[in-house]
Amino acid sequence: MSRPPAHLMWADALALMSRAEQLRRGFFQPVAAGWEPPVDLLETEGALVIVVALPGVAANDVELVVGGGEIAIQGLRRLPPALRSARVHRMELPQGRFERRVALPPGTFELSRRELADGCLTIVLRKVA
């Protein structure tokens, strides 16, 4: 016995909504250190470029450690002081400590530049011969 098309469309819509919610939750993965920001890792001829989504994070609240074939990006996202006493109706951006460890491709790298702008931290690791 087949189900009417309306039931199939409803089941498909629910499945799509469930998948969209999974993707939204996966954007900021919770980890033991708090939360884990999403990262892009790109390679040019002379450098690795890492872009980390850190909305609302101050530059002096981010620490970088390069070594052992990886880079560790850690820090703190603070709720703005003016909002600390606000009543929360919905909060999807993670707060508190974060840490992200990214394995680097084979080679030797040194930190060349870091810049935090428009909610993204851009890290340039120069390839060392």
Automatic annotation (TrEMBL):
Q: Where is the signal peptide?
A: none
Highest taxon above the source species = Bacteria
Question: Residues in domain SHSP?
Answer: 30-129
Please name one Pfam family that this protein belongs to.
HSP20
Read off the SUPFAM superfamilies from this record: HSP20-like chaperones
Stated family: Belongs to the small heat shock protein (HSP20) family.
Q: Write down what this protein is called.
A: Heat-shock protein Hsp20
* Organism for this UniProt entry: Teichococcus deserti
